[in-house]
Every structure is written in C-alpha cells, then in structure tokens.
Amino acid sequence: MQSKNKDIPVLVVEDSQEDFEVLEIACAKAGFNMPMRRCKNGEEALQYLYREGAFENHPKNEHPPFILLDLNMPGMDGHTLMETIKDDDDFKCIPVVVLSTSGSANDVFRSYQNGANSYIQKPDDMKGYVTMVEQIRTYWFECNMLPMQWSVV
C-alpha cells in the first residue's frame, strides 16, 4: 500500500445502511483492512472533509486517501458532491470512485465530466462485491500511487 498513514479512513459516501454493511463484509472477506468512514449524504461528507459540525474535532490535516461515492442520495447527491470536491484545491486530488446501482450512460458520462476517477456499477451479490473490493485494493492501493500531498507538512 502506498499510503503513509494506514489509519486514515477511506471515505464512503453511501446512504444505504444495507449497502454499507455489504461493503464492510466484502472488505473483510477480501482482506482489505483499511478503516472506513461512512457519511450518509453529500452534506455530511462535506462536513467531514471541512471538519465542521460533528467532525470539528477530527484532525484537520488528515484527508481521506480515497473516496467511494454513491450517486443517488437524498439531499446533496453524488454528482453535486463530486463537483464541490473537484472545485476545491484542498480536495480535488483525492481519487473519487463512483459506486452506483445506475448503469445509465448519462450517469457514467456526467460522473467523468464532474471529475470521477472511476465508475463501478454495484455488484448483484456478495461474490461480486468481494471481487470488486479485491480489484479496488489491487489497483488503487497496490499498483496505483495515491496523491498524498496532505501528508507533507
């Protein structure tokens, strides 16, 4: 893993408790032991990133190395959140992988247009989730070098 601090959690923006639990189980089965921080919608994710509200006491210099983002959420959806993240110099280098049930060509195109680094359609079963997590771990955390500019003081 390229990360200098393996204790900084991956940010998972997912409104469905069930989908998040499936992801946690798949991570455990795939041996992907990175900690995860779940935010239930775009507003909560921004509060986490900006260390506001319930997150104001979290370390301000620890940005997630990676964001898994659902698109269809109540309130601020994934597209709007991604636009906000990619417009902010402090966060635009954080890789954003969309993880959505949608296979719509429009959602895929719009996601890349808004700065997504990857788009994955949610698998249908646990075996698919485990395979997906293994592939994410292999590519994003073993092969790929994540931009860790926030680790430099």
Q: Pick out the low-confidence regions.
A: 1-5, 149-153
| Strand coverage percent | 5-15%
What is the rounded Rg? Answer: 15 Å
Shape: globular
CATH top level is Alpha Beta
| Intertermini distance | 21 Å
Q: What is the share of helical residues? A: 25-40%
Q: How many β-strands, per DSSP? A: 5
The class by helix and strand makeup works out as alpha/beta
Describe the protein's architecture and organization.
With 153 residues, the protein is of the alpha/beta class. It has one domain (10-151): Rossmann fold (3-Layer(aba) Sandwich). Helices cover 39% and strands 13% of the residues. It has helices spanning 17-30, 42-50, 78-86, 105-113, 126-143; strands at residues 10-13, 36-39, 67-69, 96-100, 118-121. Strands 2-1-3-4-5 form a five-stranded parallel beta sheet. The two termini are 21 Å apart. The model is unreliable at 1-5 and 149-153 (pLDDT under 50).
Task: Provide a brief overview of the structure.
The protein is of the alpha/beta class. It has helices at residues 17-30, 42-50, 78-86, 105-113, 126-143; strands spanning 10-13, 36-39, 67-69, 96-100, 118-121. The chain has 5 helices and 5 strands.
